[in-house]
Amino acid sequence: MSVVAVEARGLHYAYPDGTVALEGISLQVCEGQSVALLGPNGAGKSTLVLQLAGLLTPTRGTVELFGIPTVGPRRRRARQSVGVVFQNPDDQLFCSSLEEDVAYGPINLGLPAAETRGRISWALQLVGLEEKAGKAPHHLSFGERKKAALATVLAMKPRLLMLDEPTANLDAGSRRELMGLLQSLRETDGTTLILATHDVEATAELADYVYVLNHGRLEAEGPTRQILGDRALLESVHLEQPPLTRLTGLLKESGLLDSEDDPITVEEAYGLLSKRLRRMA
Amino acid sequence: MDLRGLLLFLEDALQMERYALGDSLVHRLDARVKLLINLAIILTAVAVKSLLSLALLLALVGLLAVVSRAPARRFLLSSSLLPVLSAIIGLPFLFLLPGKPVFALSLGDTVLAATVQGAERLASFAFRVWVCVASTALLGLTTRFSSILDALRRLKAPSFFVDAVMMTYRYLFLFVEEAYRMVLAREARTPRAESRVQFLTSLGGLAGALFIRAYERGERVYLAMASRGYPGPQSPVREGGWRASDAVMLMLVVVYCLLIWGAELLRYGGLLG
Description:
By secondary structure, chain A is of the alpha/beta class. In chain A, 41% of the residues lie in helices and 22% in strands.
């Protein structure tokens, strides 16, 4: 039986001004899974990530990280297994040099100096920023800052990695690099991933299970293919299917394509369409 | 200078660290030594009274600046703004201290007489600020900020102080950039010339919005720190140790400062007359 990485039960959260951000969220993510919290702006995704990471205390309900409650005397212990990459890297990079920022987490974990140095170079190499170790964060480009923010968390080697809008504001090249990095973390290292995003294409590429959030409530959940294949559901929460899923859907509606499956990635759509085109030729 | 110009000036001033990547005897000194030299110069400047002593200290800072090949314009610009402001603030000294009159200003029934003693006090005040600011500016021009923080930690400065300095520096850049973007957005919606009242009103609004944004960012940064174990056993990322040249340079500066200090003590203590 797989280990439960994070489990939320009946999670409610209201901000001090009374705004209700989350209402009765219950979810479970197992170790090794890659899960997307999909929803439009203001759905409560970021708040849910902070709750799941034990950084905010729920108004009602509970969160457990690897079986340890995030509230109470063991909350620090619970937090050690999770790394959070914030949406805005400027919130995350607060030290005067990239090297110091990457060292911050390992030092706070109480790792010896030699291991801390090893973690710094490993994490920076992984994100391709080892040449910029001594640079101040404000001298890095936005794409580099985003990767640097990821490195600060990777250096802590978390069992569970949560990313808030990982692809937001990235150019195509930086996005591709980041997606490749996350894919390899998932496939090679078996890192458990939770992505809070409204990017349906990133969801298609990275997630194998999706929770759909809207107005602080869970609207739906299911395997990625099932959720991204449900056009009505996505449109009801101000989202859209990935363009190629939408295209093949239209082709099927007009009788030009007959297939049981809805492709959700470029590769899948290419496979389906090339087969059809070859038959026609 | 308008608001946009001021922010651009600040942004440029914050880029001082690029000069710290140079190579000179001063650049190569251990950051702790440079901090201690700065401290010795500041303490001496605060303690001494005579203009000659202050001039000797300024000469020392000037000599170090020459040795470091610091860019002269940048050095003078960053070290002279505050002394000018200090001279303006200290202007009342000129008229308030009793002594030998130099000239008098007549304001209706009131006559303000400037005195030699007032002028000396004013000059001493501005000169003192100049020495301290010039020494600190030189530290900034020759030392990377991360090295200064590392030096502070290794000199056992309280960690909350070092963290506060680190974050202030880090977020000053963002603060200036954010303010600049807001000023541009305001200008984009201000097609006609504003009256002074309108300008001040929008400036107040801008300051308020900046404060709220800074507060919100502060909360997010705290959460980011907490997610990486704050408050934990933060310790420095260590750099190399002291070399003989570091010890010699520190000793020379300390002896120079002590000589100035000693001469003042003797003079004002009555031993020299």
